[in-house]
Amino acid sequence: MGEVLDVQRTGKYFVMSVTAPGIAERTQPGQFITVGMGGEESSMILRRSFAIQRVQSRGMYGGTLDFVVSPVGKGTHWLTKLRRHDPLSLVGPLGKPFTLPTKPVTCVLVGGGYGSAPLIMLAERLRDRGCRVDTIIGASTEEKLYGGLELKRVSTSLTLTTEDGTVGIQGRVTDALITTLESAKVDVVYACGPMPMLASVAQVSTAGKVFSQCSVEESMACGIGVCMTCVLPVIGDDGVTRMLRSCIDGPVFRGDRVRWSDIGTIPEGTWGKEAARP
Amino acid sequence: MTGAVTLTGNTTGEAHLSGFDLRAIVGSLELNSPILTASGCAAAGRELDNYFDITAIGGIVTKSIMLAPRSGRATPRMAETPSGMLNSIGLQGPGIENFIENDLAWLQQRGARTIVSIAGGTVDEFGKVAAKLRMAGGFDAIEVNISCPNVEDRGQVFACHPDSAAQVIQTVRRNSDNKIPIFAKLSPDVTDIVEIAASVTQAGATGVSVINTLLGMVINTTTMRPALAGVTGGLSGPAIRPIAVRCIWQIRNALPDVPIIGMGGVRTGHDALEMILAGANAVCVGTSIFTDPAAPMRIQSELEQELRARGFTSLLQAVSYAHRDVDHVMVTNALTEVSHQSDDGWDFISE
Question: With contact defined as beta carbons under 8 Å apart, do B158 and B166 qualify?
Answer without folding.
Answer: no
